Amino acid sequence: MAQERQQGREREQVAERFRTIAARREAGAQGYGDHHSDWRATPETLRKAVDAYNGANQHTKDLYIERIQREPQMARAVGQLINDRELVLQRDRGMSR
């Protein structure tokens, strides 16, 4: 039971991280424009998912987030893409110092 709760929290965190990236992209935040190296460092699959999410209506957005929260495979896949993005960004920032 505790493990299920932990996994549920992890899926919630992945969904929240995805929503944050999507919101920053939609708002045109620094680093999220088409030509910015941070956005280009984002795996193509994640970029496409974020842009599709941002182009969707609210109902579709809600369903997508629910899938991340409910389906372990979906959460793992999205979480891995987000982790890959963060690793590339950390590596790139480490090299520029």
How do the strands and helices of this protein lay out in sequence?
Elements: H1 2-27, H2 37-40, H3 44-55, H4 58-70, H5 72-95
Helix pairs in contact: 1-3, 1-4, 1-5, 4-5
Give me the secondary-structure category. Answer: mainly alpha
Given the structure, what is the number of helices?
5
Mean pLDDT, nearest integer? 94
What percentage of residues falls in helices of 4 or more residues? over 70%
Number of domains: 1
- The best one-word shape is globular
State the distance separating the first and last CA atoms.
Answer: 45 Å
Instruction: Tell me how many strands there are.
Output: 0
The major beta sheet can be summarized as: none
Descriptive keywords:
97 residues; 5 helices; 0% strand; 81% helix; mainly alpha; globular
